[in-house]
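Can anyone check this?
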Amino acid sequence: MTAVQQQCYSCTTYCKTLPNGRLDPETCDCEGTTPCLGDQCFVKIETFHDEFTAIIQKGCVAGLPIGQEGCHYAGQSESVHCYCTGEKCNNKLKMEFYMPKILPSVECCECSEPHGDECSNTKCARTCKGNYCLIDFDGIEQGCGLGIPRLHSFMRTNEYAKYQGQTTCARYEATQTTVVHGCVCTEASGFCNEVNKSRNYQLERVIDRRSDDQNYCYSLHEKSKQPFEKDIFRKSDTCEGHYCFISLTTSELVVEGASFEQNYEDQKNYIGMSRPRFEIMAGCLKVDRDEKVSIGCTTEYATNTSDIISKHCICESHLCNYFNLLTNEENTNTRQIVRPKSKANGIEILEDASKQSKQCIWILNLQAKRAFKWSSYSGILTNVPNCRSFASDKTSKPNPSKPTKPTKPSKEISDVKNNTSYLDEILIHRESEPKTTAQKVKKKAENTFYYLVFFGSVVALGALGYYFVEQFLAADSPQTIYSKALKMVRDDERCESMYGTGIKGFGEDTGRGRRRHIAHQRYITNEGEERVRVMFHVKGDKHTGKVFAEVAKKDGMWDYRFVYTVTDDTIPRTVVMLGRANRSVIPLVKPFLAVQSVRFYPARGTKPKPRNLWDKRHLDEITGGEYTHLPLRVDRLGGRDPDTGRKVNQHIGGGVKFDYFMVDFHRRGPTVPDETYDERVLEVRRDANRSAYIALVAGEKGKRWILATENMAAGQVITTSCYIPPNPVVGVEGNAYPLGALSTGTLVNCIERYPMEDSDVFVIAAGAAGTIVRHQGNYVIVRLPHKHEFSFHKTCMTTVGRLSHPEFHDLIFGSANMHRRFGYKMSSGLWHKKDGYCGRKIRPLPPVRVLETPEEAPSPNQKFTLTRRQLGGLYGPASTHPLVTQTQFRF
């Protein structure tokens, strides 16, 4: 800083503006009580038109660029900056009542893409007039400004007037979000800030200039309510530019309402003040011409140089924009330099040979810590005599075939490491080793957490990849089947002639948003073969239709069973294709399996009612499909569907909890005469799951529960025989015989429907019994309790006698709670139509039904994902899905 030459007024005040928005210099001024000493004096006037208030701030300035004396607009009419030289020159009389100087005006382009404009490269969207034109390429903003351009003030340009009529471009960067990349111009021809003109000038004169001769600078931008310390540079980064800069502001001029009891919009009186607000910005600067930049600092302060209002410095060397420029302290981040001999890239080369070696080692040490790029220092090491050996060693490429052995560092390098500067500390962040137990535990916990996050990410990524492969790349995925089937349809000439050109495929006939699901079904046949069936729609220029495809898994490979398409015409046409080209096209005559569509809302009267009070699937899960005589706790359905959980039987409730006993309805014995399988009755008890009593019997093969006959008691021995004698016999109650071995008129129960152990049985209710009517060849006619006659095969097993607990049907519950206990939900007391109260219509009994061979098992229920239109039916008729009905291929 130069020597102090004069005194200046130092104060801050505010006042009301005139109705036209101008300042009244007669009544609005201040002088302060304590003047400051500086090279020049300054006056700043900020006008707030909405609040009709102006703030005046006065003080001293040092390092002001040449040619900026007088009053000028600071980019806009609301800000006026005045500078002068002389004893207390910053008063209203000497500054001519703070009237800005009149500068030449130019016409400029005005546009702003961030505000919704579309800026053209060759012409102006709008025009404006000002003292200079400006353009910012980050977002394309064009406009005009008043007074001295702020870009020239930022560059500390001396004699600004001599660049009048020229273009000045620059780019300065503090952080990635704080970048100014533009130009200002004052060409008399006007419209000098067109995009094409300015962009080409910027690229040629600024960005590409001195690309090999740039300096590394600190990059930092922080705001705070407290003063900054030099530790703030621990957050800094680096950037490259022609010059480095650093700026600091400690206050801002603001207005506030005089009364805080009202809303700010309703305020009529305002006060202006200088509020503390600290902002530091450091970065790199690129310019089009070096003579436009003045190295040094411009400082504005109130009372003395330590009471800084703002300070802006520009320097030209590596990492020169450090905190010491703001505090006027000695830069401790560089080595002590004595008797400079020359400079290379901004670093002074020492004259003393021993100190030159230390300086070389220091530069190498910084490079090893990755503080800078090596290209910036290779020239320095080459110019210094004692550094050439270091430069040759550093620039030589190592031989990758020969591994280098770790060498012990020299004493000089050790001394440098022990005497590291603060620059090394803020650029290289070394984490200290944990010393205490708490620090070690914390370190271990952090490492464990990072490992868990890493492995969790790997697992999540693997699961996502597996899902992607299964859904889109697997051979059995609906998307893969859809793609291959659609390709076969497009490649088939018959389909092209039937549908036309440009065949398109889609999952559903009506789209719900952007997604159209592909209807598909997975099922397993009785032979255990896995299959996947897909249906989708196709559309061409002539017709629309549907495509059906199915794949089956054989020997671990998925193979196409069929692919065919059917048109949507009144008389549909069918084209049959197969999945492999080496197969011959053969007619597929097997009809589709009947499938049952799952509706979201079943039609009235079609709810499936559970046959049992308990869930048989849960019974299979807890027993594993094996028989056991132990009591089981099975989930009760309570009248709800086991799949959907909805109430489907209104007459079944929860009831009390009870155990379930598995009853063996099929009794088998020897098929030779005079041999029987004997069992002893251990216990006869009531079963809450059925009306008849059950008996626990034990034999050579183990224990089991059977239905007890009317006179069965504990300790009784019962026998079982599968032998049919030539003449029928009179059976003993409780013993089991084939129907063909019993005489006519015998009362029987637990009659097998077919002569196999997994068939259904008749007559299992309490007190019920069937009667053998006659023998007819290999069949026996039996009259069941409901008086219908059935013809059973003579080898079907049955038990002699009437079932126990015949008084069950005459049981009077006595209360509604007794019904609820047994799981019967009470019905309403309303009159029900056709309940038998008024009599019944007597119809003749049906003829004898012959049960010769077991009926084929019904087709398994198969679920499809259908469209909303196909699932309709609750409030109107629903269109039938092609897969729901049994259809055959049409040829």
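Reply from J.R.: I decoded it. Confidence is low (pLDDT under 50) at residues 334-359, 361-429, 579-607, 873-891.
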